[in-house]
Amino acid sequence: MLTAFAILTDGLVYAAYLFLVAVGLTLIFGVMKILNVTHGSFYAFGAYGAATAVGIYYDRGLPEAGGFLFMILLAMALGLVIGFVLERGILRLVYGKDEVVIVLVTYAVFLMLEDVITLIWGPRSYGAYQPMIAAGNIEVGGLVLSNYDIGLVSLAAALAAFGYWALKYTRYGRLLTVVIFDRETAAAFGVNVTVVYTVTFVIGAMLGALGGAVMAPKISITLGIGVEVIVLAFAVVAIGGMASISGALVGALIVGLCRAAAVHLVPQIELFVIYAVMALVLAFRPYGLFTPAQPRKI
Amino acid sequence: MESRAILFAAVAFLAVAAAAPALPAWLVSLATVAFANALVVLGLIILWRAGLMPFGQALFYAIGAYAVALVGRYTGVRDAFVMLGVGTAAAGLVAFVTGFLLARYREIFFAMLSLAMSMILYGVLVKTEALGSTDGFHVETPTFLSYAPHGTAFALALFWLVLAVSALAALVAAAYFRSIAGVLAVPIRDNEIRVEYLGISVTRLIHLKLVIAGVLAGLGGALAALSIGHVDPAMAYWTTSGGFVFVTILAGASSVAAAFVGSFVFELVRSIAVDLLPGTWQLMLGAILLLTILFLPEGLGSIASRLRRPEASKP
């Protein structure tokens, strides 16, 4: 019973993490049809930025509660700048090329940003544990849970709800839906697709940095964190069907719970259970769980 | 034209083989790994012509490498040809089996499924203590039909073997590109439903391409394992696959020779960059890839055909 409860809570926390990482990737793929390898760099920049922010903030001895906010703001500001420069400076030049070639473009940028991170922060690893300590623990049903983890799950849930609402009920959300459905028709009806692309990419980059920032207190921030995260996010997004936010949510939950179950029951398979689930889902639903049927082109 | 290209390639091949003993040792071992990896790239070119790009080709690469290492560890066999045969066959078998699933997929989902498969192998290798876990394990030094060289002589012998295998693979691939199955790659990329209307099974054609690419990747992995003398799970990680895709785009799908030249240039640039700019070699590689995509969208191989075109277009 306790194990089942532990699997559930661990699974939810891990799912929250995966969703936070995957939602920006999904958004960018859905709107721009770009599988963005650079997302791993956004995550890494967010995490490193958070570490710097936490360092600055707690050195001054400011009130503890604000540290988390400062950390998130700095990370998202980093995401905004990098996302904007990248979209306007590089991606703009390759729109219209083959999907796989654009993946390679983002891969090239990812390689470059890996070294940029080393140039800025150096090869040593960082910690940003203070917000997690400040949040404290709570005991539920014989299990000690970190308040920070509970906050993480709430944040992911809130983000999912907000995303759903924003896509359905705001003007910008409706515009996005139109562009997702048919870019050319949207342009013909006067939607400024160029602006939509830029805004989408910047929001996606900020979400990636947010994912890195909120995870920063829980991990050791070291070289190569982006490399690991990007394949995980790919798995989640592919399970969900690449372009759907609800798909990313379900994908994150499936992967999170499966991994938690593996960690508690069969630790040997922990590393590949995620990809096994992904392969299994794709074997039965070749386009992911949440992809509408596509018409054949003759 | 065709025979001139083959003649040119043969002269280049003989020149490289003859010059090898005079070359510095580092260049020989670099070229050995580069040509082993070029075999993987050759397989990717075959798939890329049909519009498919797997992000998990390291799966077959690692299987070829581990099969060779396992033969050396658990049997008394030390012959390079037998080891290569086992590695290639293992990878080919896995490619044949996974091909039944993979051949049904296209575009990004093809890339993702292949990525998932290679990451599963990575997870298994990391967790298997018997195979050395994350450290991997040592590959026995092979012999060549009872000729058992050591040191530089071994490196040279292996280089000649890689050269010969590469030449053979290049000839076979060139023949495949001229065959009906090979020529149909471009129509499949453009519109596969029309190819189906011609009465041809696209799934079966792609399955064949997957097996060829898998065999080439296994062969490349087996040769790389012999050359490096060590195998580890990183051979199956997605960054390894990413490197192969990188070289494929860098080289372009225009010709067989491009795979070998591209792979060699890539290894050379990488080792020079690591030497000169230890902290920022990825920055340089990324920039080169980006510039290639922006200004040479058909890859390095297209430079040759661009130079040739003006003469060809004269009346």
Task: Please report the total strand number of chain A as a whole number.
Answer: 2
Strand arrangement in the largest pleated sheet of chain B = 1-2
End-to-end separation of chain A in angstroms reads 55 Å
> What is the end-to-end distance of chain B?
17 Å
What is this structure's SSE topology?
The complex is a heterodimer of chains A (298) and B (315).
Chain A: H1 2-32, H2 39-59, H3 65-94, H4 99-121, H5 130-135, E1 137-140, E2 143-146, H6 147-169, H7 171-181, H8 183-188, H9 193-215, H10 225-240, H11 245-265, H12 270-284
Antiparallel strand pairs in A: 1-2
Helix pairs in contact in A: 1-6, 1-9, 1-10, 1-11, 2-3, 2-4, 2-9, 2-10, 3-9, 6-7, 10-11, 10-12, 11-12
Chain B: H1 2-19, H2 25-49, H3 58-74, H4 80-102, H5 107-127, E1 137-138, H6 151-178, H7 180-183, H8 185-197, H9 202-228, E2 230-231, H10 238-251, H11 256-276, H12 281-295, H13 301-313
What does this structure look like?
The complex is a heterodimer of chains A (298) and B (315). The termini of chain A are far apart. Chain A has helices at 2-32, 39-59, 65-94, 99-121, 130-135, 147-169, 171-181, 183-188, 193-215, 225-240, 245-265, 270-284, and strands at residues 137-140, 143-146. Chain A is 76% helix and 3% strand. The longest helix of chain A is centred in the N-terminal third of the chain and has 31 residues, at 2-32. The model of chain A has no long low-confidence stretch (mean pLDDT 84). By secondary structure, chain B is mainly α. Chain B has a domain at 25-238. Chain B contains 13 helices and two strands. A two-stranded antiparallel ribbon of chain B has the order 1-2. Classes of the chains: A mainly alpha (298), B mainly alpha (315). Chains A and B meet through α3, α4, α10 and α12 of A and α5, α8, α10 and α12 of B.
